[in-house]
Amino acid sequence: MTVRAAVIGLGDISALHLAAIELLGDVELVAVCDVDADRAAAGAERLGVPAYADHRELFAVEKPDVVHITTPHSEHAAAVIDALDAGINVIVEKPIARDPQQAAAVEAAAERSSAKIAVCFQNRYNTPVKAAKELLESGALGAISGASATVIWHRTPAYYEAAPWRGTWEGGGGGLLMNQAIHTLDLLRWLVGPVSSVAGTASTRALPIDVEDTAELTLTHAGGIRSVFYATNTHAANAPITVDIIAENGLLSLRDELTVTYADGRVETVAEETLATGERAYWGVSHERLIADFYSRLDDPEPFWITPADGARLVDIIHEVYRGSYPEQTAQLTRNGVHQ
Fold this sequence. Notes:
Blueprint: E1 3-8, H1 14-23, E2 27-33, H2 37-47, E3 51-52, H3 55-62, E4 66-69, H4 76-85, E5 89-92, H5 100-112, E6 117-119, H6 127-138, E7 144-152, H7 157-162, H8 169-172, H9 176-179, H10 182-192, E8 195-203, E9 214-221, E10 226-232, E11 242-247, E12 250-254, E13 258-262, E14 267-270, H11 286-296, H12 308-325, H13 327-336
Parallel strand pairs: 1-2, 1-4, 2-3, 4-5, 5-6, 7-10
Antiparallel strand pairs: 7-11, 8-9, 9-10, 11-12, 12-13, 13-14
Helix pairs in contact: 1-11, 4-5, 5-12, 12-13
């Protein structure tokens, strides 16, 4: 049976979702949606499907089986909740919502709905990351004693000017932590364990934006394990993301590949097995893997394994830092609530 899919939001990241849908032989794109009329019309012409300005109208008319939500952050929660309440399965880009209040509303919608939902923490599908997870779970490295991670990247004023919501609290719910570093925070939480407390600061050091471009965090995980995290968008270039995990029997280091250095001197490496090609190759193949996996599990009675709770906990962690660093801005987001 052919699965009917729709994409809501035709910004940059939608290209990965559209490409992944095209690769799936039993999935048909039936509609797109964007509040920008010109972008919606261009998408409809390019893809050969109807375009809508309102996702609710799309749901009512097209009745898709799955929707991909790739809108600005502030629009995630309303579209996800409406889809779940309509019984439509959802793949939503990170973050799951702009703020903790919206994230909690999404969690509640998922609990009352029979539809499935996946949050795009696609880096979990990278071959080196999967190998790291399997090794840690095998017990071969012994107990984890600590971890560190960095995201040292480059963004220009033009990047924010191209999509002005990115540099705002109202549109993005934050900056570096919500838009770039959230993926690496997810990896720390997934590989090291749930986070029980967080201390940190976020600040706007160099870029002409309202939200943070630099942050440092100390996370306490289950069992008292501590990890430290540094991220910035003010570097001169995009450096490789790093995740280092110290365990009793060795050191696990993620860069572009996984390197495991055992206490007895052995060294093992795991590289990405499939390299992306084309204009957006720098985003890798992990979106494609996540999306294919989600569709393959639509008939599975269990919820999808990357859950709304995963997404909500990341938003909670980030906003714990924001509340100390930007108290007025985060208080305003809370007062604004969930926009339907």
